[in-house]
Write a structure and sequence with these properties.
2 domains; 431 residues
Amino acid sequence: MDPKLLNDLKALLSADAVLTYDCGDGVCLVRFEHVDSVDFTAINRIADENGLVYRSGTALEHVRAVGFHDGQGARVRFLYDSDKNVFEYLYDPASSFRPALQPKTAGECPVRFWQFEIGHSLIDCGMCYIFQLSDYSFFLIDSAHQYSIHDDTRILSFLRERTPAGRPVVIRGWFFSHGHDDHIAKFLDVLQYGENVRIEAVYANFVPEEELPLHVMSTADRAFTRRFRSLTAEKQVPVFRPHTLDVFCVGDLRITVLCTHEDVFPLPLENYNDSSTVIMVEVGGDRILFPGDAGHVESEIMEERFPHSLACDIVQQAHHGHFGTTPRFYRLANAHVVLFPTTKIKYDEEYDRYPANDESVRIAKHCFIASDGTAEFTFPLAENRIRIHPDAILEDFNAVDRLWGYTYTDEYKQSLRARFAARQAEQVLEW
C-alpha cells in the first residue's frame, strides 16, 4: 500500500476515524469513517498523480466504486457508501485481473443453467451450479463435499456429455463462494485428478485464516483452503480475487459482486459463512442471485446497501436452507424460482426452523431441492420450460447412521424411496 496515496486521501477526506483490515494475501483495506461527501473528480486526480490508471467504475444505489491498476499487476479500488458515510481504499497487490466488461455471445448453443444434483448418499450439504455458455464452455459455482465421493467424475462427465465431440471441456471460470469443504472439496479432486479439462480461471476471495480463531475456522477448513492455494499454484490456474462492486463478464454472463468478508469489517467475523462472496449473475435480462452460505451479518449489509438491486428471477437459498440470510433478503429478491442446494431430508428438518425458508418458498412459483434431480433452465427464462432430470441418487441410510448417527423411521425411509422411484422420469414444467 502506497503511503503517499494514503496520506493524500487522508488530507482530501479529513476523516476523523481510519481503520485498517488485513484481508489476506497482501490485500489491505483502509476504512475512513464519518466522510460526509466525496469528490470523485479529486479522487481521480489523486489516483493519476500517484501513477494509477483508471479501469472501471460502478454505482449501485448509494454505493459507488472506482477501480484502477498500477501497471505492475496491482489494483486499487475506492468505494464510497454515502448512506453510511464510509470511504474505503483497497489495495490488492497480486490480482492482475483485467475483466471483460461486456458479455460476449458466441451463439453456437443456448445458454443453460443447472442446479446439479450432487452425490448426497452420505452427506446432506454441498452445492454445485453450472452454466453452459453459448460457445459450449462452462462457468461453475462451488463444488461438492469430500463425502460426495464420486462427484469430481460425475461433474466432469456431465460437462463432457454437453461438449461437442472432438472439443475439450473448457471451464471459462470456476467461482467459489467461500472455503468450506462442502463448497471446494470436489474442485480440488477435479484439479488434481481430472483429465482432458481446461480450467481458465478461478474466482475466490477467502478470508485470511490468521484472522480467525478455531471456533470460527476449523482445522479442517484451514487444511482445505491451504490445499486450494497450493493446488491452484501447482497447476498454474489463474486465481482472481473479486471485491465488492467488481463487475466482470465470462462469456455471456455479467457478474456483479455484492458482498465479501471485507464488508463485514470492522465487525469481527463470528460466523465463517459470513465470509461468503455474494454475486448476481445476469444473462441478458435474467438475473440469478447466489448468496452462497451468507449469514445474517452479510444479509443485513446487502439489505441496507442494495434494497432495490437484489430483485432477481432465481435465488439460491443461502446456507442450504439452514441459518442464513434473513426473510427480508428474500422479500427483496422476490424471485420466481428458489433453489435449495440440499437434500429432501435436510429440507424437511430445517424448513420450519427458519422463517427465511417459508418466506422464499411463499414468494416463489417454483421451489427445487437439489436431491430431487438436476434442475435445468434455458435462457431467456420466460420463453423456455424447466426440465428436471431423473433423480440419480438415494441416501444410503445404513452408512449415514454409521457415519453420523442419524436415524429415520422405516415409514420416512419408505416415503423417500417412493419419492425417488417417482422421479425416475424427466419432468418438464412451465416457467
